[in-house]
């Protein structure tokens, strides 16, 4: 069999790849002791191209990097073979790790699992999405970076997030089951550009302290205990409250069940807010969650100008929180909370009735989000970051007391 570089059936090489005659010239110049920059100028190539060629395709059998054109061409041909077997196909332990983090069951801290409701996509883009199901739902990027922390001494347990996406989206790369796309936050079965809906809601302004008056220490996240909050809305005027700590990204979910006397489709003019997310219900839910925290983690709360915060003055008295309000139609001023709400839509998609979910189910979802690694935390989880923060506060308190 003739070698590929002289075979009449071989595909012609394109300009971006080194040819066999160029590799012969490189071998001659290397034997003369010519430098990389000089070789690159002679061949009209980038110095980095020559450097990579000498590193990747040199002969190493004798323990040294001897560059020979025939050996280099053999290495290049072998590397160019397609399709290559993916890491997830040949490494069972790696594949199991990825699938467990994508599709693991949502459970609360006591280990009680929740399968969640069956949510079927509707609308014009439903063909591109999978019906949602609850899972631990780590993103491919989180999985790829967390591998380095969980297996620091095992180089075989490495994979890029792009390789995981390709295994899910591209037929023929099928190391992962195609149905696992339902575990992605977007639920997409295909890659599509994102769409953002503009959110419009009722606003109020009564003796409120605006975000422009918020201290600088809150803005730079230097001091923990400052929170951002909002509501996730669903069908039938249902809602779930979200609270996110700015430093650790630790998330708490507020259970806002419908109140006694609520009737679907019926509204009473100037009547009490029975849907479950009126001002009193939200105030009680926030106070119940916040009073469980130590004083060091109960500093301030930033919210938008929604009518659900009409009792903010009483909330300040109940919890000691300083309440700040964003400017109208400025969700970027609560960027941490907005990002977290986007992650939570994995479990609470738009167009679904959120009143189905019990407080135990919300606790399980919060536990899943808080035990997922975050890029902004150096791939630690929010729970780990909060535990570390509380441990430091405890040590400082003991030292001060001593």
TrEMBL record:
GO molecular function list: DNA binding; transposase activity
Domain Integrase catalytic: 211-390
InterPro entries, per the entry: Integrase_cat-core (IPR001584), IS30-like_HTH (IPR025246), RNaseH-like_sf (IPR012337), RNaseH_sf (IPR036397), Transposase-Integrase (IPR051917), Transposase_IS30-like (IPR053392), Transposase_IS30_CS (IPR001598)
SUPFAM superfamilies: Ribonuclease H-like
GO BP term, example: DNA transposition
NCBIfam families from the UniProt entry: transpos_IS30
Cross-referenced PANTHER family: TRANSPOSASE, TRANSPOSASE INSI FOR INSERTION SEQUENCE ELEMENT IS30A-RELATED
Function: Required for the transposition of the insertion element.
Protein name (record): IS30 family transposase
């Amino acid at each position: 069999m003739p070698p590929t570089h002289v075979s009449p059936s071989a595909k012609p090489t394109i300009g971006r790849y080194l040819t066999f005659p160029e590799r012969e010239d490189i071998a001659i110049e290397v034997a003369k002791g010519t430098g990389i920059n000089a070789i690159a100028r002679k061949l009209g190539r980038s110095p980095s191209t020559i450097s990579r060629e000498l590193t990747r395709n040199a002969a190493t059998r004798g323990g040294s990097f001897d560059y020979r054109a025939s050996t280099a061409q053999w290495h290049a041909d072998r590397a160019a073979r397609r399709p290559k077997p993916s890491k997830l196909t040949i490494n069972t332990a790696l594949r199991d790790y990825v699938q467990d983090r994508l599709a693991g069951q949502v459970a609360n801290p006591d280990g009680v699992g929740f399968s969640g409701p069956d949510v079927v996509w509707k609308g014009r883009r439903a063909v591109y999405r999978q019906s949602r199901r609850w899972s631990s739902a780590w993103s491919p990027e989180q999985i790829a970076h967390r591998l380095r922390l969980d297996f620091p001494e095992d180089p075989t347990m490495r994979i890029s997030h792009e390789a995981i996406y390709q295994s899910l989206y591209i037929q023929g790369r099928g190391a992962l089951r195609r149905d696992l796309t339902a575990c992605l936050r977007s639920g997409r079965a295909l890659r599509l550009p994102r769409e953002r809906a503009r959110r419009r809601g009722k606003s109020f302004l009564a003796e409120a302290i605006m975000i422009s008056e918020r201290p600088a220490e809150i803005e730079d996240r230097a001091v923990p205990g400052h929170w951002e909050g909002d509501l996730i809305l669903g069908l039938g005027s249902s809602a779930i409250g979200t609270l996110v700590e700015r430093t650790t990204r630790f998330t708490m979910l507020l259970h806002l069940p419908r109140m006694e006397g609520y009737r679907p489709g019926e509204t009473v003019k100037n009547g009490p807010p029975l849907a479950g997310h009126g001002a009193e219900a939200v105030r009680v839910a926030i106070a119940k969650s916040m009073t469980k925290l130590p004083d060091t983690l109960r500093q301030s709360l930033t919210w938008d100008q929604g009518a659900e915060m009409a009792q903010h003055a009483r909330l300040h008295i109940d919890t000691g929180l300083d309440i700040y309000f964003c400017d109208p139609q400025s969700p970027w001023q609560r960027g941490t909370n907005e990002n977290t709400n986007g992650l939570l839509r994995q479990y609470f998609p738009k167009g679904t009735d959120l009143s189905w979910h019990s407080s135990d189910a919300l606790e399980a979802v919060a536990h899943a989000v808080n035990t997922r690694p975050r890029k902004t935390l150096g791939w630690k989880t929010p729970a780990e970051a909060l535990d570390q923060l509380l441990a430091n506060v405890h040590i400082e308190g003991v030292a001060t007391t001593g």
